[in-house]
Design the sequence.
């Protein structure tokens, strides 16, 4: 079947021309009266000396972090309370919120216990010597000079005769800030001389202990002080004279194993750490589970080692009461 090509009319030709023109026609959208041209932004060159200025602070503006001047406030390590230093000193370095006992210097403790201007110091100029020529990170002689300079004391104990209330007594106060209150030849000698003087004068003896133990730089000479002090206290006891031992934080090792634990009355400050060896050493040696807080004053009071726990602000009056009781018979015999 032959199909003849159809002829295209004039109107169809015009439509085809229109469609062909559609392929090349472009449309643009314009907004009347609102044509804007954005400026070109070019970054500054690397060679350009561009500088940026800080915005000035407003005068009189307060910083959020307030600086606290040193020497005015102390943070309690137990309850985290900020304590005004003057209030802390007035309360003998005891936190009035949680009763935490801060460390106190030997001179401050003496002033808190004795009557004003009644303390007569003994053997104030006695100093230790390096009899073993001990060597370590630094020589023993250099260490002694360093601590004598920083603490203002010759050694780790202050001894003397004083008056506590109406009672005259021999008082020895250890100083932990001097080589950890370690028991050396001078400490042992000064305590022994004080005890012998008290025996001669028929006075009660009071020793405030705080120590990490024997002084390793003096070796066997240090350990000999344990026997020497206990021997002097034995002669003191034969005269039926009282000895009151006060244990403060910390009282450990050779000191606790000698004169600190042989008092007629043994009292301690609250929370004081008291023992012979450290908890880790005991656990490693015995391979036993240790009770919690077994080296605290409260634990030892419950188990009979201590006679009482006395807060520091009440210590002086408590000593007066003890001395009243312990010396009552002697006063009656004298009368």
Sequence:
């Amino acid at each position: 079947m032959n199909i003849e090509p159809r002829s295209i009319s004039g109107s169809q030709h015009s439509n085809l021309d229109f469609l062909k023109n559609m392929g090349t026609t472009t449309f643009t959208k314009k907004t009347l009266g609102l044509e804007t041209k954005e400026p070109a932004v070019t970054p500054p060159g690397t060679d350009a000396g561009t500088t940026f200025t800080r915005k000035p602070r407003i005068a009189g503006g307060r910083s959020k972090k307030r600086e606290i001047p040193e020497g005015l406030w102390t943070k309690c390590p137990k309850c985290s309370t900020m304590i005004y230093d003057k209030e802390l000193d007035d309360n003998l370095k005891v936190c009035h919120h949680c009763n935490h006992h801060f460390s106190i210097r030997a001179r401050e403790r003496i002033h808190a216990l004795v009557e004003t201007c009644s303390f007569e110091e003994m053997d104030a100029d006695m100093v230790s010597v390096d009899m073993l020529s001990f060597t370590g990170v630094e020589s023993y002689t250099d260490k002694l000079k360093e601590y004598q300079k920083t603490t203002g004391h010759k050694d780790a104990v202050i001894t003397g005769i004083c008056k506590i209330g109406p009672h005259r007594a021999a008082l020895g106060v250890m100083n932990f800030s001097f080589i950890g209150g370690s028991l050396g030849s001078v400490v042992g000698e000064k305590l022994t001389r004080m005890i012998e003087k008290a025996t001669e004068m028929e006075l009660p003896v009071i020793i405030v202990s705080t120590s990490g133990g024997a002084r390793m730089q003096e070796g066997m000479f240090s350990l000999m002080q344990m026997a020497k002090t206990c021997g002097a206290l034995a002669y003191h006891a034969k005269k039926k004279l009282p000895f009151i031992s006060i244990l403060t934080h910390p009282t450990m090792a050779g000191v606790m194993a000698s004169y600190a634990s042989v008092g007629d009355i043994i009292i301690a400050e609250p929370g004081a750490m008291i023992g012979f060896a450290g908890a880790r050493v005991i656990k490693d040696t015995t391979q036993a589970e240790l009770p919690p807080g077994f080296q605290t004053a409260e634990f030892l009071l419950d188990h009979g080692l201590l006679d009482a726990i006395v807060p520091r602000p009440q210590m002086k009056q408590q000593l007066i009461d003890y001395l009243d009781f312990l010396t009552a018979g002697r006063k009656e015999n004298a009368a």
